[in-house]
Design a protein that fits this description.
The chain is of the alpha/beta class and about 575 residues long. It is built from 21 helices and 10 strands.
Length: about 575
């Protein structure tokens, strides 16, 4: 199968290509099932001609032809298996980027996301190359074999038709009785694994606070229900599999007995009796194999439905024309954000302007909407109303891969990725610019710290930076935000885990960003960071309470604090951390 550009393939396009590949599967199945007739034809000729004539050369010639046919069947079957593996791999590679993008978007939009979609895609890939799927492909040939048996004798045809109908009925009952249990088991299993995944991400807290027994108990509860549903479905499936095997063996005995009766009546040859039994076994084999693999097929079907639902809810972004490199003019106009499923807005009519080389300090009490503003400005969350533009272009009109190099973001909770320090600073680029990596580290004041690590920039930091301290992770995250000299930099509490030396390096990093013309937003709880800002924005309950030049805002609040007011009120104002920040 051709390997077109992944970006050019949609979900419907990938499925359409897979359906077109079924033409080749039809040809493979045609060749295999025609060559399967080799064995019954050979038996008929041996019993009806060779044994009656005693001609050894006929036996030798028939055996040679049958051997070549069976060898060709094996080659075609091998080619079909290899073809199905490649179709599954192609489908995985074609959809993986789209599935990851949709899963990330779902996480950003609704806060719900996991790696389950990738597991579902892997389930589809493995099922395509499984014997159960091959059996499903061969099932349409069942009527053909029944017709051939009918042409040999109508009595044998009736037995074949009745046995096929009986096996199909068993398969239908298997589906009806196991469907709900298998679906429930799959959902509970996913939920149990997600709970353990959350515990692993917070392993330190689990260990320190003795939460492991509670985690195990919650997992046991979910797992017990999942295993119970699996057991119920497996018990029923085992019963139907046993019934189908017994039925198939019985009908093969029955067709041999009927064939012997017809031979005694002179209505069928002994070769036809043996051939009929072989053909019936071949006709019923795909049905029996499908029943045996039904659990895997149902799991794949559920995975398919989940993927369809995910890609329908979060379709891929349309292709957009690349925009020129921005200069860093940021403008937010009447930004309002209401979370999915919520009623109360977190941001209310936020409007401000930031030029290249300007630094905006955002302060305010907890739950004022500061971090939400950062996520909306960087395009992680889409505003419910209003616009955020960079050089006049709506943030969401940029393709993420085009905007990313011009945007630096340090979230409140710094997360690093498995790999080396250098790879993390370079944003996991396959071919990073080593000079730009070192420059970003120097700008963040973390170059010497990195050199002190065991392997410098090539130090493997473990899963999520497990081997680094919180301060080290935050400073490396800052270097990542500065990589490539982006034109818009958003830092959400960048000094939360920093010591005085780290704070000094942070202030120098902000000054470096101003020098190359970046617009910088800094969310701060520590007053020292505000010294590097040009503007101050005070937020409270999702609204802008004050916005202006730093000295102007400081002067306004100093005047307010110095004016006459009741002592109790003054004490209350001075205890407000926001007032303390702006006062400083």
């Amino acid at each position: 199968m051709a390997n077109p550009s992944i970006d050019a393939i949609t979900f419907k396009g990938a499925i359409s290509n897979c359906r077109r590949s079924l033409r080749w599967l039809v040809l493979f199945s045609l060749g295999i099932n025609l060559l399967i007739l080799t064995s019954p034809i050979y038996m008929m000729q041996v019993f009806d001609r060779v044994l009656s004539s005693g001609r050894l050369e006929t036996l030798l010639f028939l055996t040679l032809i049958a051997g070549i046919a069976v060898f060709a069947m094996g080659l075609i079957d091998m080619a079909r298996g290899q073809f199905l593996v490649r179709v599954g791999n192609w489908l995985d590679r074609s959809l993986s980027a789209q599935v990851i993008a949709s899963a990330l978007a779902l996480r950003l939009n609704d806060g719900v996301g996991s790696v389950q979609p990738l597991r579902d895609l892997g389930t589809l890939r493995s099922t395509l190359a499984s014997p159960g799927f091959v059996a499903v492909i061969d099932t349409p040939w069942v009527p053909v074999f029944i017709l051939i048996i009918w042409l040999m004798h109508p009595v044998l045809g009736l037995i074949a038709l009745g046995s096929a109908a009986a096996l199909f009925t068993v398969g239908l009952l298997n589906e009806l009785t196991c469907r709900a249990a298998l679906k429930k088991a799959g959902q509970l299993s996913i939920a149990a694994i997600q709970e353990v995944g959350a515990a692993l991400r917070n392993a330190e807290a689990v260990q320190a606070m003795g939460m492991q027994p509670a985690i195990v108990e919650r997992y046991d509860h979910s797992s017990f229900q999942s295993l119970g549903a699996h057991q119920q479905a497996a018990d029923r499936g085992a019963a139907f599999i046993g019934l189908s095997k017994s039925l198939r063996f019985f009908v093969q005995i029955l067709i041999l007995g009927a064939g012997a009766w017809l031979v005694l009546r002179g209505e069928l040859t002994s070769g036809g009796m043996i051939a009929g039994s072989i053909l019936l076994g071949r006709a019923l084999a795909p049905v029996e194999q499908s029943i045996g693999a039904w659990k895997q097929l149902v799991v794949a079907r559920d995975a398919w439905q989940r993927l369809k639902q995910l890609l329908a809810e979060v379709p891929p972004q349309p292709d957009r024309m690349p925009l020129p490199e921005p200069t860093g003019v940021l403008e937010c106009d009447q930004l309002t954000f209401v979370p999915s499923g919520g009623k109360r807005p977190i941001l209310r009519n936020i409007t401000f302007h930031l030029d290249p080389g300007e630094v905006l300090g955002v302060v305010g009490p907890s739950a004022a909407g500061k971090s939400t503003l950062c996520k909306v400005v960087t395009g992680s969350w889409k505003p419910t109303r209003g616009r955020t533009t960079l050089d006049g272009a709506e943030i969401h009109s940029w393709r993420s891969e085009d905007l990313g190099p011009h945007l630096g973001y340090l979230p409140q909770e710094t997360e690093l990725f498995t790999g080396t320090v250098g790879e993390n600073i370079a944003r996991l680029l396959p071919e990073p610019d080593s000079a730009a990596v070192i420059e970003a580290a120097r700008s963040a004041g973390v170059h010497e710290l990195i050199l002190s690590l065991s392997a410098g920039y090539d130090t493997d930091i473990g899963d999520g930076g497990y081997f680094l301290s919180g301060g080290q992770r935050q400073r490396i995250g800052l270097a990542r935000a500065l990589y490539g000299k982006p034109k818009l930099i958003v830092l959400d509490e960048p000094n939360a885990n920093l010591d005085p030396q780290g704070e000094k390096a942070l202030l120098e990093a902000i000054l470096h960003a101003k020098q190359w013309g970046a617009a910088v937003i800094v969310v701060a709880h520590h007053p020292a960071i505000l010294r590097s800002t040009d503007k101050i924005m005070l937020m409270r309950e999702g609204k802008i309470e004050a916005l202006g030049r730093r000295d102007e805002i400081f002067g306004r609040f100093r005047a307010a604090l110095g004016s006459a007011q009741p002592a109790a009120s003054r004490s209350k104002d001075e205890s407000d951390p926001t007032t303390q920040e702006v006062r400083t």
